[in-house]
Amino acid sequence: MEELEDLDILTLRAFVLALYQLPSLPPELQTALQNLPLEVEAMLEAIYKLTKQEPLAQKYRECRLVFQPKEGKRTKSDHPTTNNQPTNEITNVSEDIAEIETIRNQGGTFFLQMVEDIRQNPEIAPKTIIDSCLGLPSHG
User: Fold this and answer.
1) Can you spell out the DSSP letters for 51-94?
2) Comparing 98 with 119, which gets the higher pLDDT?
3) In a domain? residue 129
4) Which residue, 32, 58, 43, 59, is CA-closest to 109?
5) pLDDT band at residue 91, thresholds of 50, 70 and 90?
6) How far apart are CA 9 and CA 110, in angstroms?
7) What local confidence, expressed as pLDDT, does residue 116 receive?
8) Is the separation of the CB atoms in 94 and 100 below 8 Å?
């Protein structure tokens, strides 16, 4: 398997945390997750499109801020923010720092496997799969 770019890993981390943050999945999102392509590039493209649609879009933006590289370490594909004002968005992300730190410490292959587990198990809530993959007590 080819090495994922830093931006791909950032996208996967934020995507997984955003899924984790959703109280429930609408049927359309569940169907979209089940239909994610197997090929990595196509899967990443489909995930990117999902992150532009509600209810995932807002949570994804919030979660991405948590994992965004610090100033001066942006990847070439990251766009600078247009608003330099402090944001309260990060406070809307889960208060459970263990989840965030556990996600932050995982590599791209780990997230690809997690997304595959979510895709293959539509009867199990993504939050439960994420808890299991991260070795955290189940919340759902």
Assistant:
1) TTSTTHHHHHHHHHHHHPPPTT---TTPPPPS--S--SGGGGS-
2) 119
3) yes
4) 43
5) very low
6) 10
7) 92
8) yes
Residue 80 lies in a domain: no
Half-sphere exposure of 3 (CA within 13 A, CB side): 2
Asked whether residue 140 carries a pLDDT value surpassing 70, the answer given is: no
Return the SS3 of 33.
helix
Residue 61, in any domain of the structure:
yes
**Residue 6: both structure tokens together:** 């830093």
Tokens found for residue 29: 């999102």
The count of domains in the chain is 1
Is 40 inside any structural domain?
A: yes
Single-letter amino acid, residue 67: F
Structural domain boundaries, residue 130: 6-71+88-134
User: At residue 3, what are phi and psi to the nearest 5 degrees?
Assistant: -70, 135
Is 109:43 a contact under the CB 8 Å cutoff? no
Residue 129 pLDDT > 80, yes or no? yes
pLDDT of amino acid 29: 92
